[in-house]
Amino acid sequence: MGDILPPAYTNSTGTPPWLNNGDNAWQLTAATLVGLQSVPGLIILYGSIVKKKWAVNSAFMALYAFAAVVICWVTWAYKMSFGYKLLPFWGRAGTALDQVFLLGRSKLPATHTSRHAMIEPYFPTAAMVWYQGMFAAITMILLAGSLLGRMNIRAWMMFVPLWLTFSYTVGAFSLWGGGFLYQWGVLDYSGGYVIHVSSGIAGLTAAYWVGPRLKKDRERFPPNNILLTITGAGLLWMGWSGFNGGGTFSANLGSSLAVLNTNISAATSLLMWTLLDVIVFGKPSVIGAVQGMMTGLVCITPGAGFVQGWAAIVMGILGGSVPWFTMMIIHKNWTPMQAIDDTLGVFHTHAVAGLLGGILTGIFAHPRLTKISLADQDERGAIYGGAGALQIAKQLVGGLFVIGWNIVVTSLICVLIRLVIPLRMSEKELLIGDDAAHGEEAYALWGDGEKYDSNVHGRSVENPNNRSVGATQVV
Prior knowledge:
- This is Ammonium transporter.
- It is a multi-pass membrane protein.
- InterPro entries: Ammonium/urea_transptr, Ammonium_transpt, Ammonium_transpt_CS, NH4_transpt_AmtB-like_dom, RhesusRHD.
- Belongs to the ammonia transporter channel (TC 1.A.11.2) family.
- One of its GO terms (molecular function) is ammonium channel activity.
- This protein is mainly α.
- It has two domains: about 5-430, Orthogonal Bundle (Ammonium transporter fold), CATH 1.10.3430.10; about 450-475, no CATH class.
- The protein is built from 19 helices and four strands.
- It has helices at about 20-50, 55-80, 95-100, 125-145, 155-175, 180-185, 190-210, 215-220, 225-245, 255-280, 285-300, 310-335, 335-340, 345-365, 365-375, 390-420, 425-430, 435-440, 455; strands at about 85, 90, 450-455, 470-475.
- A hairpin with a 2-residue loop joins strand 1 (about 85) and strand 2 (about 90).
- Helix 1 runs parallel beside helix 4, helix 5 runs antiparallel to helix 7 (about 190-210) and helix 10 packs antiparallel against helix 11 (about 285-300).
- The protein starts with 20 loop residues before the first helix and ends with a strand.
């Protein structure tokens, strides 16, 4: 690991001359905001948007994924995403634990000749490791949204480290860590491709291999608490300021613009989705509004710091209408899509919205704004002339690479796990839900004819010592 505190850093303040305290503080804040999107944001959203019998399982899938990714990230996956080149699309595995403790300037290693200047933030590498780790964690949790209500929890425990290692790190290195897509100039400001297209495509692919929920669950799957669903969604929305605002690795003009554009697009998309629900179905749907919020956030992510405010409104309009159309019209009327049980529609809200945002970034990216984040790169949207028309082609190729890689690798991982353990719960477990999978239930409520069982539910409030109470007591 080397000397944790080299002589150059042993001054009384602990602040080396190159460190920008403002950038460091913002990066740590942004990382925390992204972390809060997962814990507790998506845990609350997943635990409340599903049937009551799946609340614990859905929340736990998110909680487990967060913890597992953090350990895998610092042990080997960070270096595979932002380390020295092994292949044009993959970094060399290695521990980042020394980076967590060593106070060193964070710099993406210049491992290959490039026409692009490598990004060199003015904060410790530990801040970069943590910020990027939060991105990796939320990607895994978003993917889980496609598999809620039937995946074997033990299979999920195996799936998380395998997919992180062989899928996420490839997209991250290719587009952010100096890989071939980065070299070619594909734009992905804060994860439209790396996070959202990959989680949406991988989620749909895994859903195919895992198989569907019970028929009655697919036909009727009401949220157990819509108010908590809105609460989880609200944490996602507010946390997205860190998600996109930290993408410049500096508290500069680009980060401020990214935060503003993010919220403009989200609000516009939510209103657009709600308007379409009213026009077509006659009522505004709360769940629909949450989906519209999500697609607006996802759509702006590839270009949050690259586009002007008016473009963010356009991206919000399209982000709230194109995924609405694919989910509400195409999905419901196309048999192949109906055959795959994507529980929360992650394909539409993330893959479709993310790819759409990437293409729109190729149209609207302002050349002066791309320079703020990308040093000497000269990427620009098609509307700004020059080589801008080529940018759309670059964005399409980048998206297709992420799509193709995730379909193949996710399939291989699922097939491999299936050789060891079933991907799907047994029919008995699917009928019972949380109690069968975890021995726990989300709500200690005994209405609807249920009976209080002291062996299962513990002591009652009225009779904490269980004296003079039979085996069951109707509450």
